[in-house]
Structures are given as C-alpha cells and as structure tokens.
Amino acid sequence: MNNSELSALLKDMSLDEKIEQLIQLHGGFFGEVGTITGPAAEFKMTGDQPYRTGSVLGEAGAKRLRELQDKMTAAQPHHIPALFMADVIHGYKTAFPVPIAIGSSFNTELAEKIAEAAAKECSAAGVHVTFSPMVDVSRDARWGRCMESPGEDPYLNSEMAKAEVKGFQGDDVKKPGRVAACAKHFAAYGAPVAGRDYNVTEISEHTLYEDYLKPYRAAVEAGVKLVMTAFNTIDRKPCTTNKRLLRGILRDDMGFDGVVISDYNAVGETVIHGSSYDKRDAAVKALSAGCDIDMMSDCYLSGLRAAVQSGELDESLIDEAVMRVLKLKNDLGLFENPYKDGSEEAEREIIFSKEIQELGRKAAVETAVLLKNNGVLPLSISQKIAVVGELCDSPMIVGSWSIFADRSRTVTLKKALETLCPECDIKFFPSDNADEASEYAKGCDAVIVCVGENEEHTGESMSKADISLSEAHNRLVEAVSGVNKNVVTLVFGGRPLGIARADSLSAAVLEVWLPGTVGCLGIADILFGRENPSGRLSMSLPYCSGQLPITYAMYKTGRPKPENTGFIRYMSNYMDVPNRPLYSFGQGLGYSEIEYSAVRLDKDVIGRGESARASVTLKNLGERDQLEAVQLYIRDEKSSVVRPTRELKGFKKVLVPAGGEVEVGFIITERELEFYGEDMRLCAEPGDFKVFVTRDSLGENCATLRLEGG
Ligand code: GLC
Prior knowledge:
Elements: H1 3-12, H2 15-21, E1 23-26, H3 38-42, E2 55-57, H4 62-75, E3 83-86, H5 99-103, H6 108-124, E4 129-130, H7 154-169, E5 180-186, H8 205-212, H9 214-221, E6 226-229, E7 233-234, E8 237-238, H10 243-253, E9 259-261, H11 266-273, H12 279-289, E10 294-295, H13 299-309, H14 315-331, H15 344-350, H16 354-367, E11 369-373, E12 384-388, H17 413-420, E13 425-429, H18 434-441, E14 446-452, H19 471-483, E15 487-492, H20 500-505, E16 508-513, H21 519-527, E17 594-596, E18 600-601, E19 605-606, E20 612-620, E21 626-636, E22 647-656, E23 661-668, H22 670-673, E24 675-676, E25 682-683, E26 687-694, E27 702-707
Parallel strand pairs: 1-2, 1-10, 2-3, 3-4, 4-5, 5-6, 6-9, 12-13, 12-14, 14-15, 15-16, 19-27
Antiparallel strand pairs: 7-8, 11-16, 17-20, 18-20, 20-23, 21-22, 21-26, 24-25, 26-27
C-alpha cells in the first residue's frame, strides 16, 4: 500500500476499529472464536473482539499463526492483518549465549550474525516482530535483567544495538528472513534503585543522557522499527506516561517515528504507581505521551472511546498512533502477504540448520571470558580429569528468555566433553556435594568445578541483594582445591557473581555465562585448546554486593585514593574492599599473550573539525593465533562538568597470528571528545585528553592529545 491508500484506510475505520488496532493480547485470549472466558472475560471483551485487535503477544509456529491470522483478518472489518510479536531475545529455537555474553564478545559482526540467525528461525515460524535488542545499560548485578543487556557501557551497548537492529531487520524488513526489531526498555530500566527490578530510578539529567540514553539513540539511528517503554519511573514519572521522555526525547530529539509499545500492562501499572487515577486516566496519559500500543492492559480498551466522546482526548492522537501501526504492517508487507515468511516447510528447512548450530558453538567460544589462568589451561586429552558440580550436566543453561528454545537439544557440558573426547579419562560428578568428588579429585591431573547460577536465577524479577556464590558452591571449590591445586572453575550465570573466594582458590577461572543450546561445545573446545578464548567482560565483576552499582567509568572525586594501596582515611575508599572490582570491564585473557606497543598519535594537537589517528602495534608472543579486543578509552583531563576517569570510545576485535604483528588504529574526532555540558548540549571543550589504546579498562598505555579552538 502507498501512503494515500493507508490514509484512506484509516479514514474509513470506525473509532472502535482504531482503538482495537492499539491493543496487544497474549495467546490466552484466542480460544474458540466467540467464546469469551478467562482473561478475555476480565477484559470485558465481546464476541470475537480479541480477533479484531491489532497485534498478538508471544505466539509462534507457522501453522498456529497462519490459522490465527486467517481468523483475525476475517474478523477485522477492513481485514487488516495482525502483527505477531514475540520475545526472541538471543535466539528462537536455537538459543545463543545470553546477551551479556554476546556483549562480552566485543564483536559486533558476531552480534549481527546471531540476530540474523534468530530472525531467520522466528520469521519462518511466522513471527513479524521481536522484542529485541534489549539495550539497557546495567551496572548493578543485583538486577537480574543484566543477563539480557549487552553490559555496563553506553558505547559498547550502542554498538551492539546497531549491530542487532541490522541483524534482525536487514535493509528491508519485508524481505524473507527479516523481522522488525524493538529496542527496549525506554528508558534507564537498568538503573533501578538498589538493583531491585521494577523499582524507581534516581538519576541526574547528565547521567540519563551520558550513561543511559545513548544505546536507544543508536538503535533509533540504526532504524529500529519499535521502542518499548520501561516499567520504571524517570524523574518521578512512569516512562509509559512520560510525555517529555516519549515525545520530547524519543520522538523530537532522537527523531524516532516508529511504533512505541508499552511493556506488559505498563499502562495499567501507572495506576498502581499512583500517577494515574484510573484506567481511563492511564489510557489518556499514555496515548497523549506517545505510547501507541497498550500491551496486555485493558486501559485503551476500556478508556479511550469514552475519553474521545467526552472531548478529553482528541481523536487525532488515536489516528496518529494507528497510522504508525498500519505503516509498520505495511513495511512488513502484511497487506500483500499476511503470513510473511511463516511456513512449515521453511521451519523444517531453517530451524536448527547446521550453519546456525555452528554459529551457536562459535558464539560461546567468543563470549566466554578467561579471567585467570596459571597455565593449567588448556587441558590435555591424556590427563585424568574430574568434572564436578550439578551445573556440569544441567540443561538449565539456555537463558530465562529462551521461551521458544527446543530444550531437548540442549548440549550440557558433560555431553559436550563426552562428544569432544570420548577416549578421555574424564569422570563426572554432577552434584554440588563435595565429598565423593573431592576423594576422587585427589588422584586427578585437573578438576573442573562448575559453579554459579542456572537460568532460573537470572532474568526478569530475579533481583538478588547478595550476588555471592552459594555456600554450596564455595564449599565445593574449597573442598576440591584442598586436595588438588589444578582447579579450573567455570562460572555459569546471567550476571557478574561474587566469586572472590572461589577465584582465590582456583588455578583458572572461565566465565561461561549461560552459553545456550549448543554453547557448551564451544566451552569444551576452549578447555581442551581446540579454540582460543577471546571474550572480554562487558560488565565489571565486583568483589562483593557492597560495591554495587559499579563501573570502570568511575569519577575521580575530590579525594581519589591511589590504586594499589590499602585503606586511606579521609580518601574516597572502603575500609574492607578495594574500590576497583575483582575483574574490570574489558578484562579477559587468551592462550596467547599480546604485547602492545606505546600509543602513537599522528598529531598531538587538533583544531575544530580536525581528527587524529591513534595506533598501536600488537605482537603475538604465543604459539596460537589470537583474537584480541583492542579498546580505545578517552579521559578528559579538565572540563566544565566532572567526567569519568576514562570512557570507552572504540573497540576492534582483530586476529593477531601466532608470532606475528598487527597494527590497529582509531580515528579520534571531536565526537570522541564531546560530552553534555552544563546546558545539556553536546560539546567538546579545548584542552588535553588522555588517549588509551589498551587490552582492558585498567590499561595505562596512553598518549596525550590536545584540542585547540574556542
Ligand atoms: C516482559 C518484559 C519485556 C517483554 C514483555 C513481553 O514483562 O519486561 O522485556 O518483552 O514483557 O513479553
């Protein structure tokens, strides 16, 4: 359809039809056509009204969705097709490593390929829209949803957001194998007070703009088709009815002209927050604020018609929202083909293809983070090895949002190791009870201990006040390390955990996150040296919960404590733990050591509109080719508002051949030097900047660049 045809369609629609286009219901509402039971009854829907709504939440499967689409287009007076939207967060039937792991790859090409593979699988199953990428910056591991985030850094999250939008949408969402993407949760959902999910946020305007808004802006610039509102408040107003946030920042400032959808019942929850008097007030406020679709509340259903008829709400606002929904359906080609790519044949051909499974394995290789290794890794197939811990054979390592994953296909670490080396002398003790295992461990060359969280301990609402490893897991590491010094600790989970105790007793520590359906094949390859780890922490790993929230991008304060000293009274530090995390953002090892040359600048001074190039030469001192995530950080030495001691402004993952050398460079423009000034406008102030090109956020390898000009 062209725009005039869409306008004619909108003009011909009744008010009821238009309101129905702005309602999204989950599959429970679609029983037998005409029978109103369960949730539909609570929503006071009549006859076949659910079938006249504009979109459906959380349903997938080509057969199911083709049949549902037939019923919905038949029931809708203008036969407008429905949108099918689902949470395909890090894979559909093939679950990839969770997003915090994907962020730890520091590889945007990999992130794009994963999104593209997920889009291929779910579009074959009839899905049109995915509620991904989740781009919320998260610096508080007490918050269970850091699992779904690329990590703590605005720049890394922005780059991952762009890559994933491109992976899902391609250059035209109408094309086969593509789906519309939805950036979420707008905004600053990752900053709940005390790390408690759904809690309010208390952040300054500068923190909102500098630390939390950038990844959404990046997703909008990448052409994301939808944005989802967050449950939390910003500046004491729920995001879903926050006009300044949705119309002022998202639409006017960022230029977003796509569909805004609420989170699940987030419109209705504004009544519970206490900022909407009732459902009708919530409906008026949300629609006026710019929220187009009401997901799973009955506020729009029950409140909009009366609000228009009373003159409280101008119908033109409804028309504006409906037009955005119709345009999205049109962009997807649904008026010509309401099923899009959904076909059982395509499902059989695409889902779990060998290519997608290999990508799942490779993704785990690039996302696992080797935090410590005294040389015990890689293991040898001739060694006698024990593998200990319930997680070594648990299928609950796929991720809590892998609602569509085929769990019968999950490869556990035990299965992976048995597959990789059937002849190896490996004995498994898939229990957290240390007694039997530690007896056997005495005679082993090395012991792999699996600790951390399974997928039931992370994700939405799974907030923890204490992120320490469980007592059982600490005891497991203590018992095994008491009889064998070659302990390789694997940390599963969707958040940074308090592993300081286990780390101190381990010869090697590998953060494996929740590696997905076939990810353990990649983990096994790393353990036995068939693959070389290259992941870098996308989120700082604290000593303990008391350090949270924490990020590498700390501020000096007026009393900075020198690093590597103990507690100093009257300085900004703790009496009981260091200021720095146990492992910092960007940290991670490979099996080959990479030596960095000094940072070279092609010019030490730049004027307005000019750029400089910072470069280093990397030298591989090892015997293995090494993927290296080279990171560019900038420190603004003096500025009109305080600035972090460094901020990530670039990264490149490059292959450094064994024994070889590679030159890596970054272009630095004013964009890399700018920040939000006192007037909240982006600016780059003249002065000196430290330019770091390093392997992680602790590296001191830097040069000084001066920006001149008023
Ligand atoms: C959930 C989540 C959101 C998800 C939505 C639909 O509550 O907050 O991320 O996309 O509901 O399932």
